[in-house]
Amino acid sequence: MVSSELKAVHSHSAKGTVLNFNLGPDEISSIVDSLIHEGKKIQDAVAAQTNPTFDNVIVPLATRENEQSAQYLVVTFLQNISTDKSVRDASTSAEERLNDFEVESNMREDVYKVVRAVFDNKSEMGRVGPEDRRLVEKMELQYRRNGLALNREDRRRLGDINKEILDIGVHFSRNINEGDGRMLLTRDELEGLPDSYFEGRETGAEDGVEKYVVTTKYPDLVPAMQLAKREDTRRRLLHVEETRCPENIPLLQRAARLRLQAAQLLGYKTHAEFVLEENMAKTPQAVAAFEADLRKRLNALADNEIAEIESLKKADKSAAGETYTGLYIWDFRYYSNLVKERKHNIKDEEVKKYLPMTEVTRGVLNIYQEMLSLRFVKVADAPVWHPDVEMYEVWEATEATFVGHFYLDLYPREGKYNHAAVWPIRPRFERSDGSHEYPVAAMVANFPKPTPSTPALLKHSDAVTFLHELGHVFHSICSVTKWGRLHGTSTEHDFVEAPSQMLENWGWEPSVLRRFAVHYQTGEPIPEDLVKRLVAAKNEGAGLSNLRQVFFGLFDMAIHNTTDSNFDVKAAYSRLREEVGRFKNGDADSWGAATFGHMMGGYDARYYGYLWSLVYSADMYATRFQKEGVRNAQTGLDYRHEILQPGGSRDASVSLERFLGRKPNNEAFLRSIGLRSD
């Protein structure tokens, strides 16, 4: 490692080099100083080369990325998971400083000059291997996309814009993490919620009445929106959620305008045009056509779903002697859940009893072990950042070959990142002496915590999320690349979700569910009838739920595929949600876009990728696993070797064709959500 501050620590039972997350503010600052100092020194040496070659230009730059990446990722990761606010603040400051340095680095004309010399040298490019050649191409393109072909004044302006965008992103995310909303509600106001919801729940007095604290964290918010019978409770709670972080609206507005300015400086019409150049979709027109076609097909499904939901709400209003005024956004989860319950006799509370976290974790990890021919070992007394966190070693299943580490941080706490995501903390890469570094990844989630009378119990959707996020973990762990820049999830952005989305299918396989779904009290396996009902309900509400994803994608494009710098982020979000999602917003002023973290978290002009990549995930599952068996060891190995192992070292289209044996198509995807492919 370049910096001595981030020393390796060793647990007596952990293998390989274990990262140290126990850093204070001063240590974080010192690491950043070292990273910047060493980075500048390497860049200066590279820029001074008079006879640029792959070995004296590209190798030092890429080796710096390899060796420094873990330090960079640890000090910036801490803002999402540390219990110490001073550490989170220091981590946020570290990211701002490192972002500024990376912008400056990417704008160095002297470094670009020698990189371009290698890129243009046909003899030099011809003597290196395919991954080395791809590395040079990616480097050269990155410099060019950062404005190195611009005149000095425009280049300076672009650098300032990029720095400001990165700073906005840091503050936007932090506001979301630390800006949770909360309400005090009585048991009557929360009618419909099960007893387990109230066990161990914090209370507070309001107007002399003892009430329950309900926050906007997922384990609080989602059950309340699904089960609270009183419309006014759902309306008020959603309003609290959608009026969080008002300071983020001008931040997002500013960021979107800056992105447009940056794209136009570089000669693109819109930010989306700039972004999509590197994706599988290639153009905004292709994305627009995809979303328009899907929206049309989904509306046909949604017509019937709306009719069912509307009849239920009209009946409720009639019984209460109230006037029906339409379907509102706070009705979506409640009535969608009610339809599922009544049509399929499925209740989350019934299913949860068979999904204790300990058994789901054991079962899901076993699935990945078998599928990928790996073996996981839980590390005792692991050096982790919180007592809830678990650390695992990964080994080859049939040989004593160490593969890497991963961490599971599964429960909510104050100041923690408040959704579910995976951080690739360290890539696998090769060293000049032939050895290699081991990959590390961390899954951060906010699943329901244990209560005084029950262990942590998951909804089925939580178990599917678990499968999905671990898919990202093992994309990182199983990737084998020479260069960290091309490792793991460093693929085209509209493919990166596909490997994880494919693994969601295991959560709907009866044979798989029965392997880990057991009653938390009796240990009895989940009844076959309940599994049948659960699977039968899979596509219930598929029209409306997928239209919700279309809405997010269209909003993203509305603010990023425009030449009009006077667009209104807040108004666009409200208008499109009502038009596309088909539920009214209501009269109260709100700003849901303020907590749409994806827009400042790397999904700008890329959100469509969630649905786009579903085409690939459905095709992979139906073509190989469904036909050959979800427990077919060879199929799992093929998946590991052709999809996960290459990471971004080759085009995703090549990986897909090698795994599928043909070019991908959308037939399986359309079937999977109840649509025809004609």
Task: Put the structure in a nutshell.
The protein is α+β, with helices and mostly antiparallel strands.
Overview of this protein structure:
The strands form three sheets. A five-stranded mixed beta sheet has the order 4-5-6-10-7, with helices on both faces. By secondary structure, the chain is an alpha+beta fold. It has helices spanning 25-47, 54-81, 85-106, 109-120, 122-127, 130-145, 152-178, 195-198, 218-227, 231-241, 248-265, 271-276, 284-320, 332-344, 348-352, 357-372, 460-478, 498-504, 510-516, 528-536, 542-560, 569-581, 609-628, 633-644, 652-660, 667-672; strands spanning 182-185, 203-206, 209-215, 374-378, 390-396, 402-409, 421-426, 429-430, 436-437, 440-444. Helix content is 55%, strand content 7%. The longest helix is centred in the middle third of the chain and has 37 residues, at 284-320.
